[in-house]
Specification:
alpha+beta
Length: 215
């Protein structure tokens, strides 16, 4: 899954991810599909459900200037909360792949497959090509999650990119941030519970400037 038209200053568009990142993850989106997913760190402590922790889950770490506010709330339903948790981990993993400049990073591929994984790879590679990564605060909110009996789920949520931007590795310089209609992105994802109990994102579509996500 991944933000503020990340890398737009470098004339770059991407099919959101990582996103997932954080990036945002691999997404086929509408109109403008720029996305990276993110991670809560330090004071921006996540309010979303705690992630399940199988021993083989990848450790996810990003630079201290990559911060996120996840406003996703616990539902009280174990499956729905697990979907939210694993979707958050995918977002974190895409940001880590960007920070480490690794388009095939094992962390985001752990949490994504299919078109979502392919989109994430393309998105991360574009950051690598421009020798850039993400920085700043991204907020996630307005979530709706449903779980079906067949082991699949859908997740819709909003992302506020108005306080996040690009950072160029050679110079350390960052793009200016400003809030516009396109700072707000709507995501619609499809997930599947795999044999290890991980909710893997298989598809993630994005709509930049969506009226549903405007403040």
């Amino acid at each position: 899954m991944n933000r503020p038209a990340r890398l737009a200053a470098a004339a770059l568009t991407a099919s959101a991810a990582l996103l997932l990142t954080a990036c945002g993850g691999g997404d086929s989106g509408s109109e403008e599909n720029d996305k990276v997913a993110g991670v809560d760190r330090g004071a921006e402590k996540s309010a979303s459900p705690s992630a399940p922790a199988p021993a083989d889950r990848p450790k996810i770490d990003v630079p201290s200037d990559v911060t996120y506010a996840f406003e996703w709330k616990k539902t009280g339903d174990p499956d729905k909360d697990a979907v939210l948790s694993d979707a958050e981990q995918r977002i974190r993993a895409v940001d880590m792949a960007i920070a480490e400049q690794d388009a095939l990073h094992e962390a985001y591929t752990f949490y994504s497959e299919g078109t979502a994984a392919a989109g994430s790879q393309k998105y991360v590679q574009e950051f690598i090509d421009h020798k850039a990564r993400t920085t700043g605060l991204t907020r996630f909110y307005g979530e709706t999650v449903t779980v079906d009996d067949d082991g699949t789920a859908s997740l819709v949520y909003c992302e506020d990119q108005s306080k996040a931007t690009n950072k160029y590795l050679k110079t350390g310089k960052t793009d200016a941030t400003s809030a516009t209609k396109n700072s707000y992105v709507l995501y619609a994802g499809t997930l599947r519970k795999n044999k290890d109990g991980v909710w893997v994102t298989e598809r993630l579509d994005s709509t930049r400037g969506s009226a549903k996500c405007q403040p």
